[in-house]
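Quick log. Single chain, no ligands specified.
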Amino acid sequence: MLVHCTRPHCPRPQNDLPELEQASQRRSRINQKFCTACGMPLILRGRYVAERVLGRGGFGAAYLARDLDTPGWRHCVIKQFLPNVSDPKQLAKAQELFEREATVLEDLGQHAQIPDLLAFFEEEVPSQGGAGTEQYFYLVQEFIDGDTLEDELLQQGRFSEEQVRQVLRELLPVLQYVHDRGSIHRDIKLSNIMRQHPSKTKFPGQGHLYLLDFGAVKQVSHSSATPRSTGIYTPHYAPPEQSRGEQVFPSSDLYALAVTCIVLLTGKGPDQLFDAYNNRWNWHPYAQVSPQLRDVLDRMLKAAPSDRFASAKDVEAALSTPSTPPPAPPPATAVSVAPAAPPAPPVNIATPATTTPRPKPVRQRSPRAPLPALKILMASGFTGFEMTAIGLMCYGLMTTWGFPLSISAGLIGAIFALLVFLQYRRIVEHWEQLILGGLTAAALYFVPVLQAGLGAIPALLVCLLGGLACVVLGNVFLLVYSIISRFA
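-> predicted structure:
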């Protein structure tokens, strides 16, 4: 089992500990293990072991970890407090924010869409040089297996109006829950909203959105001398009052949520949607939405907090109010003609109906959704590399062992179809592509019969050229698609 050392700047943080797996099978007690490079304890608080780094930020690192005190060694997330600051005041403020996140998670983690807090503790360990001790703070919380909205936007392109409405339907009650308990999140953005995989959720068949990262949360103050807000925010997502370091309100979170929604609707970054010259948001030309959703988002994006919705409940009410239908046309007036005098026969006067031709409605074309360029180019390069390598391998087998041409061609076609299918179903992507590519490169490098007489290095270069050629073709496809979508 691979265990990751949590000491910062450890020269070799990866440690292979097969005895952990053996202890798991025997369900025996596990003694403390230490990093072979720096001597850092690897089993935190006697039960948590880090497997790999999930991310690093200004205040520390997050690790995917295992809880050894659970029967199946349940996955969890370990957050390590590690601020990159030297000023004692900033260090104290950073530690205060980290401890505040633990306190808030303990209070708010009862909600089904907020990760549970599992532990919060301090570890005092010998320093790497052995001259003293070092203190580290850790926070352990529930692991949510899924993709952030930032990942989804990169993979599938911009969201439809119904998808964005669903995001609002799932997140507005969470925000109302947070605000009702006197807290404000202050850092709502795509990367802090995660959709749990439907197969991993407690509610089968439905992927729920989770609100993550409460490190910048602020308690609402009801006193007259309200302290100024700290500078923890994401540019363009934060409302003006937060960017200026002033008091924040529940409507400040609604502003950030609206920015998140227009980014999802348009597929453009917030810096591309904000018109700094006129000091206003300019997102309407890039998204075709109903007037109701447009007006709701515009009100959430107002510069003054008093002009926005006061609460998440108000936004829900505005979205659930049915749109006012256009007024019905007045009924046609019946023309009655009185008959003539009794001696004369009745006269029917036909009044021609005057109808005004209705103009044909102009159908507005909604712009085509942009393709996930990065995903397409990665898939193109991976497929090109793999197919070139498979072709070389089959040619080497044909020339060395007399492998039949018909079988080689069928094998190449089957592998190509399998690779396309696995990537289409998102079974092979990102890390899986790197792992398969590495295994293929290792097979070419160490097995001479597969090198088609070229040698290890030339064979790998040919495969890289094949992958590069497919990336170029992918770029051409994206360019043609972009040109056609402008005129179609």
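The chain has a mean pLDDT of 81.
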